[in-house]
Amino acid sequence: MLYIEETLYTEQMLTDHPVCQLSWLADPGTTVVAVCTKDTAAWIAFCLLMKRTQGTVVPLHPDLPEAGARDMAERAGCDFLIYGDFQQPVRLTQAKPRPGGLIQFSSGTTGEAKVIHRTWLSIEQEVTAYNQCFPLPHATGTIVACPTSHSFGLICGVMATLYRGAVPVILEHTAPRHVLRVCRAHPDAILYAGPGLVYLLSQFKQRLFAVMISGMTLPNSWFEAIQDVTDHLLQQYGCSETGCIALHPDPKTAQAIGYPLPHLQTEAGTINQPAELLVESDGTWTGTKDLVGASENGELFFFSRLDEMINVSGLSVYPADVEDVLLRRADVNEAVVFKKSDRLQGERVCVQIVSSATEETLRSFCHAHLAPHQCPTDWTFVTEIKKLPNGKISRIRLGVTS
């Protein structure tokens, strides 16, 4: 069973949910469905249905506008897109047959988004290994104050908790005072939340039993503030290709991301000479594009990112996705998206653009096609975007010099 806010849902209630009896879903096991909805109960019930029937589901951030959701569903090769209404799906082109599982988007070797398909079997292996390393009693429930369209909330916050036989509480509202009230109502639960939210919670000085953080390396001041109000501070690290890679039961610094889960093999640099972390799962090695060093006892430390992905409060933003939207307009000649550090969100989305349109017009256009966390907050209008001698653009240099 689980709670969504204060409403209890038993396993039978989720199994009997109307989304598990859709007339258009004749054969879930051979169907690929993208879901963009703010109805958390319907989403969880549908996701569990697709898992039981070995179907394939693509969770999309609930704030994504319909045009953006359709773009992503088509890129993922879906049969259907559910945008809010499960009874009236959008029919897309017929999907190619594939094993049942979860499809998400991640960065490739070029930094552009790519479709990642994980089978339900690989997710079960991850959950089993995750729970083997989970340092708190297995009866510990979770308070999930992060999107369940993301692996951190869905797999680690909800699925792993259910597998342990514990009870997750999924929040649809994450205002700091509300989250703190829920923590008081469930004093023995561990909070799963993005680093920015947890840092804000720490400013209220309310004692927290346990917190799991993921999504970005915290500034030291944030880490210390959270540590000061938390009895058990845990940290995990992962990527979309393989899920959770490492879990730390008691990090002493923000850079200490944990020990590898037992079902994985990893290769990293040393503390003095970090290198890209490589991860092997089911015979396939994946490069994380993160500089990581391992201590003599196997503890992993994060140093920096190799790619250009923008991490906004734990949510990934890929520059090419934002640029593609802007370049659809005839009045946009060039656009390059890059990142800057942000005190509250970790990083923010910035754009340098050659266009005759106004900033207000372009902001409105982005909000119609992108999720809020994808929309640029810093706009710089130029007559020409500077390039390197080889003709390429350095996003890192733009982030430093803009």
What does this entry look like structurally?
With 402 residues, this protein is of the alpha/beta class. It has three domains: 2-98; 121-305, ANL, N-terminal domain (Rossmann fold, 3-Layer(aba) Sandwich), CATH 3.40.50; 310-401, ANL, C-terminal domain (GMP Synthetase, Chain A, domain 3). It contains eleven helices and 25 strands. It has helices spanning 11-15, 40-52, 66-75, 120-133, 151-164, 176-185, 195-202, 220-229, 319-326, 359-369, 395-401; strands spanning 2-4, 7-9, 32-36, 56-59, 80-83, 90-91, 101-107, 113-119, 142-145, 168-170, 190-193, 208-213, 230-239, 243-248, 256-260, 265-267, 269-270, 275-281, 284-294, 300-305, 310-312, 315-317, 332-342, 346-355, 378-381. The strands form four sheets. Strands 1, 2, 9, 10, 11, 12, 13, 14, 15, 16, 17, 18, 19 and 20 form a 14-stranded mixed beta sheet that branches. A six-stranded mixed beta sheet has the order 6-5-3-4-7-8, with helices on both faces. Helix 4 (120-133) packs across helix 5 (151-164) and helix 7 (195-202) crosses helix 8 (220-229). The chain is globular and about 60 Å long. The model has no long low-confidence stretch (mean pLDDT 92).
Can you summarize this structure?
This protein has 402 residues and is α/β, with parallel strands linked by helices. Helices cover 27% and strands 33% of the residues. It has helices spanning 11-15, 40-52, 66-75, 120-133, 151-164, 176-185, 195-202, 220-229, 319-326, 359-369, 395-401; strands spanning 2-4, 7-9, 32-36, 56-59, 80-83, 90-91, 101-107, 113-119, 142-145, 168-170, 190-193, 208-213, 230-239, 243-248, 256-260, 265-267, 269-270, 275-281, 284-294, 300-305, 310-312, 315-317, 332-342, 346-355, 378-381.
